[in-house]
Amino acid sequence: MAEGSQALLTAVEAALDAMEAMRHAFIYAVLQPLRYSVRTLAFVNALLDFPVYESLVDAGLTHAAAVEEMTQLLVRRLIKPRRKK
Fold this sequence. Notes:
With 85 residues, the chain is mostly helical. It contains four helices and no strands.
């Protein structure tokens, strides 16, 4: 691989790593004050990873449908249903 290509690949990898770290930090910052478990934080991180969205679109969902499915799954996981009195 040419030196310039290797430098570009290294820069892209660094940018992707930084984006992933920012996503993790953002999720933690938003959810940590709500005292969700480490397991729930890991679930949210995994669900919001781009390959999950990409898999849904590859399976035939539109962008809007993929976002809706991911959102509904998060809502069901994060918001506990109220008990009837």
